[in-house]
Amino acid sequence: MTMNESRNPEGPRIGLFATCLVDLFRPSVGFSAVKLLEEAGCRVEVPMAQTCCGQPAYNSGDRADARDLARQVITVFEGFDYVVAPSGSCAAMLKVHYPELFEGDAVWKKRAEAFAEKVFELVSFLVDIRKLERVSARLDGSVTYHDSCSGLRELGIAAQPRALLGSVEGLALKEMKDSDVCCGFGGTFCVKYSDISNAIVSKKMANIDASGADLLLAGDMGCLMNMAGKLKREGSSVAVRHVAEVLAGMTEQPPIAGTTPKGGR
Fold it and tell me: How confident is the model at residue 261 (pLDDT cuts 50, 70, 90)?
């Protein structure tokens, strides 16, 4: 697929589920997602009526509010060909847990299952559905990649981001030890069990620093903000970005949490 071919007005109609953290803390990830999807031949829309996916309520045991939010999201997005989110965590909520929320409700269960079939995390959608093999970005420096728990374990996302990162000119991937181990965020987990969360992210920080990479990447803003905060507090010079920003070549914004890169952009 070439870039000229990718801008096809007849391509699939995508509803971008921007996610709360991208919307409120890192809009550049949303713009990067739009650029990547358009270059992959998609027509992208960002519905203004979208809300939180309901994951905080769901993880806290508040099924009633989670169902209300799920109904809103399904209603807003079910008319699209695909629903794509730049977050494995939110995508897993929509794809895996929405159908579970409506057990015993035949009408909404059916709608949730049909909706779930259309939902994909951004990078997995680009690789697995659009069959994208290369991006046109460049980054002069080294990166290491953290496999966020929900994306890895619920959606099988691991090879896809690495495949596209391998096509970024100038980029060297330095795998960290235990890249597939939790960073300690876990949504409400880091609030309820802050001491345990801090111990987990401390081990993660040591592995990130030991990789020798300039830049830490991942596909979930919650994990990225958690790790960026710890790296900054400990005085690490490793910068932090969402993988979509690098794949889209949109690294003009400062890294997450104000960290400063050791080298490169």
Answer: very low
Confidence of residue 8 (pLDDT cuts 50, 70, 90): low
Query: Residue 62: exposed, middle, or buried by beta-carbon count in 10 A (0-12, 13-18, 19+)?
Result: middle
Q: How many residues belong to the chain?
A: 265
Describe the strand order of the beta sheet including 13-16 as a list of residue ranges: 43-45, 13-16, 82-85, 119-121
Q: Token pair for residue 102? A: 């409506």
pLDDT tens digits, 98-128? 999 999 999 999 999 999 999 999 999 999 9
Domain ranges in the chain are 3-127, 134-258
Please, what CATH class does the domain formed by 3-127 belong to? Answer: alpha beta
Q: Which residues contact 67 (CB under 8 A, 6 or more apart)?
A: 54, 101, 102, 108
Please tell me the distance from the alpha carbon of residue 19 to that of residue 15, in angstroms, as a whole number.
Answer: 12
Does the pLDDT of residue 1 top 50, yes or no? no
pLDDT score, position 191: 73
Q: Cα-flanking dihedrals φ and ψ of residue 214, to 5°?
A: -80, -30
Question: Tokens 């309820």 sit at which residue?
Answer: 192
Tell me whether domains 3-127 and 134-258 share a fold: yes
CATH class of the domain defined by 134-258: alpha beta
pLDDT value at position 153?
Answer: 96
